[in-house]
Write a structure and sequence with these properties.
Layout (H helix, E strand, L loop, with lengths): L1 E5 L7 H18 L3 E5 L10 H15 L5 E4 L8 H9 L16 E5 L3
Parallel strand pairs: 1-2
Antiparallel strand pairs: 2-4, 3-4
């Protein structure tokens, strides 16, 4: 089971976007949702906007603190990845999701917990 969360909706600043990210992870844990797909955009020039950079930094921090199991940036999505295989265990339908077909640097997928 997975949930798609659009944290770029309404064009928030990066601080509010990372607040939404953490809030949705907390909600997911309470609701039993194992996988979250965060839509954060990729920046206006395709090189990584501020929200994307802050999301990546926050996810890295949350993984180090063991708040989340793992995460994959859309551009790093590969069926050969160990973390992607962990995610498929809880959300196998993502293997054919239009959000992840090809390279999508505007999303990140989070395995909330085992």
């Amino acid at each position: 089971m997975y949930k798609i969360v659009n944290i770029k909706e309404g064009f928030p600043d990066s601080q509010y976007a990372t607040f939404l990210l953490e809030r949705e992870i907390d909600y997911a844990k309470k609701e039993g949702v194992k996988v979250l797909v965060f839509v954060h955009g990729y920046g206006s020039h395709g090189v990584g906007g501020v929200i994307k950079q802050k999301v990546k930094s926050k996810l890295n921090e949350l993984k180090k603190k063991s708040v989340i199991e793992c995460y994959i940036l859309g551009e790093n999505w590969s069926d050969l990845s160990e973390d992607v295989q962990k995610i498929y265990k809880y959300a196998p339908e993502l293997s054919v999701s239009s959000q992840l077909i090809g390279i999508n640097s505007g999303v990140s997928v989070v395995l909330v917990e085992k």
